[in-house]
DNA sequence: TATACGTGGTA
DNA sequence: TTACCAAGTAT
């Protein structure tokens, strides 16, 4: 079972969300920033931060000229702040080694920090209109249902997932058409073929959907690991970093000690933040965001 | 391949 | 309230 290109792209023409990184005046840099911010973070939370970043740093070299700490601060509460560090490093590499222009080919993009299999292809497709398969969680779910008739995607398998998506892409000389199809596939997963409560009544490809034909069987694969947050190291790291985001200069350790009562876990998390380069220690023993002392 | 990595909205 | 979920990457 395949997915009809005309039908899906036609649906996308009418139903695509009006997102700024899709506007005609978008830049590859803007697309790259959006893709990094959207990794595991919902669109609604990315929107205002993306806008502020593009106003403030319209080119990679502009971001590269900031301290990493200032970039981490501007990342705010988007989550996974190592992304901010890596985006700063990617901007530096683009400014210094690629003439301040975002690379357009997948292999070069893959060489940049924070850019993996999904983001490299997303940038190639959405910023440059290249015909490359783009596989994210939405695409995996839509393919699992519409093509394979399963209730949901199983564990990721890079090669198989890529081959599945590649087989769906329209052929022909119009590469931008293939890129638009990929965007439509993702949008369908985000708006209609959702994880929890799919809106099959509104689905443009329900008539050919293998999952529909099979009677919408429940997902039978392995259970997905549940992520806890309260009390975890991720939680504590977030609390510590939040203290530093809220101040301009270095702070005393006593200040950080207020953020979490368990000393052992707190110190281990501070050490891991140091190791990640998200925090630095000053000569006098205080702590600050990187480059801010 | 499995696990660590933030944060907040929704059911 | 707990649990799931959100355009992944690095190790």
UniProtKB/TrEMBL annotation:
Q: Name the cofactor(s) required for activity, per the record.
A: [4Fe-4S] cluster
**Entry-linked SUPFAM superfamilies:** DNA-glycosylase (SSF48150)
Q: Which domain of life is it from?
A: Bacteria
Single GO BP term: mismatch repair
Q: Which Pfam families match?
A: HHH, HhH-GPD
Its family? Belongs to the Nth/MutY family.
Q: What is this protein called?
A: Adenine DNA glycosylase
Organism of origin: Saccharomonospora xinjiangensis XJ-54
């Amino acid at each position: 079972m395949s997915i009809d290109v005309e039908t899906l792209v036609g649906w996308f023409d009418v139903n695509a969300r009006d997102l700024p990184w899709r506007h005609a005046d978008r830049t590859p840099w803007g697309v790259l920033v959006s893709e990094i911010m959207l990794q595991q973070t919902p669109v609604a939370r990315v929107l205002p931060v993306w806008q502020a970043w593009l106003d403030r740093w319209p080119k990679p070299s502009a971001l590269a000229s900031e301290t990493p700490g200032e970039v981490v601060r501007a990342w705010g509460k988007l989550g996974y702040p190592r992304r901010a560090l890596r985006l700063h490093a990617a901007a530096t590499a683009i400014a210094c080694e690629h003439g301040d222009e975002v690379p357009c080919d997948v292999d070069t993009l893959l060489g940049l920090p924070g850019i993996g299999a999904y983001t490299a292809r997303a940038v190639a497709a959405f910023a440059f209109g290249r015909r490359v398969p783009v596989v994210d969680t939405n695409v995996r779910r839509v393919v699992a249902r519409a093509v394979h008739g399963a209730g949901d995607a199983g564990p990721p398998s890079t090669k198989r997932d890529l081959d599945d998506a590649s087989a769906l892409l329209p052929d022909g000389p119009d590469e931008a058409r293939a890129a638009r199809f990929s965007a439509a596939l993702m949008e369908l997963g985000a708006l209609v073929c959702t994880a929890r409560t799919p809106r099959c009544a509104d689905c443009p490809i329900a008539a050919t959907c293998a999952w529909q034909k099979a009677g919408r069987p429940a997902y039978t694969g392995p259970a997905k690991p549940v992520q806890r947050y309260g009390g975890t190291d991720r939680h504590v790291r977030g609390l510590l970093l939040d203290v530093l985001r809220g101040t301009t200069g270095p702070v005393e350790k006593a200040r950080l000690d207020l953020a979490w009562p368990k000393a052992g876990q707190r110190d281990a998390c501070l050490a891991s933040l140091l190791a990640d380069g998200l925090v630095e220690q000053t000569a006098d023993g205080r702590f600050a965001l990187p480059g801010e002392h």
